[in-house]
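ok here's the first one, seq then struct tokens
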Amino acid sequence: GGDTHPAQPHHRFCDLIARCGRAGAQKVSSTIIRSAGFARQLKVQWDVIAALMIREVNVKYGHSNLGFFWIIAEPMILTFLVSVVWSVTSHGSSISTIGVPLFILTGYSGLVLWRHLVGRSLSILRLRAELLYHNNIKPIDIIVATYFLEIVSVFTAFSCSYVPLVIVGFLPAPTDPLLLIGGWLMLGLFGMSVGILLAAMSEMTDLLEKFVQPIIYVTLPLTGVFSLIEWMPPRARQVLSYSPVANAIEMFRAGAFPEDAVLHYDPLYVVKVSLILVAIGIPLMVIAQKHVSH
């Protein structure tokens, strides 16, 4: 009988190790299953967003290429006309190191993206309410698909204007293509975050639609489209440094402008502001969905 007592703690310890091992295996297995389920759900949502983008292309441009052709032609025509006017009036002397055409093209393209993202956010769910009857489609899917299409299509239009002009030698090649793309994505991110907030609020009240467009025009100087931050007086420079749009456009231009051009931008600041707006906009979107469903 004396030999059995010392062995009991050992058996209990082995049983404890075995139970821990089984629990750990079950936990790992459960984690793998959840990860696989999340991956499948992520793929489903991506397929939904891709399908919505294709639908949006058909709605926006139809089966005619004229609409998209005009998006490409418009910045080229504007760049050419303004460059001619500025050259005749010597108005572009202050940006001679950058070049008037490049300054106009980068500014105009950024402004178009900003206006499109904000403008298309109004009543975006109400206009597509029939899509919400599908179980897999959520309000955020509609918004992300619409904004992704805008970000891609406007950048494609910019590229179709920019690349040929670079090839023929009318514009210089970008000094940092990744920085250029990064700045564009920063502008798209902030525009999307503002759009989510406005989309939710516009479903709750019709008054917002009457104020958004005037506000866009009034705040145009804060976009940094018409001047570099470096060229502004110190007080105006400080104000523009707090504008996420101006930061994103400066970053976008930094990738295209010569290396000696002085530009001011903070991508981390743009990301922080965007995440704050998204954190406010998503809960409002849940409330807005109830308004749409009724």
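and now the second one, same deal
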Amino acid sequence: RDIVLMNNSPTIDLFSAIDTRYGFLIGKIRALEIRLLKAPVWDSLLQAGNLQGVISILRQAGYGSALDTAENPSQWEKALEEYNKSIFYSMLDIAPEPYLIRLFLLKYDFHNIKVLLKQKLFSLPAGIIESYLTDWGTIPVQMLRNSIDKENFSHLPPIIGQAMIDTVRNLGRLDKTPQAVDILLDRQLYYTLYHKAKDKNTFLKKLFSAMIDIYNLSAFFTTKKFNRRKEFFDRYFLHHGVIAKGRFEQFYDDNTPDIIERLVATPYFDIVKTALSTWAEDRSLRKLDKAKDDF
């Protein structure tokens, strides 16, 4: 099955080489998909008159076990997170290559690093950032916190430690802004994911290559937003995507509408066009993050 973004546009064929060893796992996922909440259920939840009504609807939809561990509504979010974890790890237990599935947990480690590094660099109150941290990652949050506070990354896995060293080093050559922290750590994450998967799984190699393209597009428009020179974007650019660096260099000085049209021959034309619909109004990239996640 191809991912088709618009009529007559190039596609990214992620599914041309399905591994038959994953047949049982795919079957289990299909069974779980049946329980995904459809639009009518969401409408019912929105129209529920009280808390008990919400609980009743969710139980009917098959989510009773996710709520049973919560003693009061304030614990729901934690209960749902634990439920999600149980689903993920049940998949991990039966996966032929659990190592590859664990790659998807790295994004949570990098998310926590972003939060903790921003706290240190920009002196954010600890109470503010706590709610943004997650324990979904492969490394305990406290271990990451200690490493950043002491600027000693030797106790971390080499991949994570080197990513943090490179990010701090590169921040010295760039503006120390929250956006720069995000972009540099995303760069490290996608580089790691691609190289971990490239020789082991064709599907993941193509998926992570597409993620690199989206990262490069985000970095490109972020540098444009702050009126940086082309050389500034060069420091962010990450290879192994479909869109070559030369393509970005060709239209770096163009106006946004012209840039969008230049992307018409890529799989990303539709999301860039949608994401940048607010650019002319306030040079905002607020829709780009959602478009990245949707893609």
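notes on #2: Residues 1-10 have pLDDT under 50 and may be disordered. Residues 202-225 form the longest helix (24 residues).
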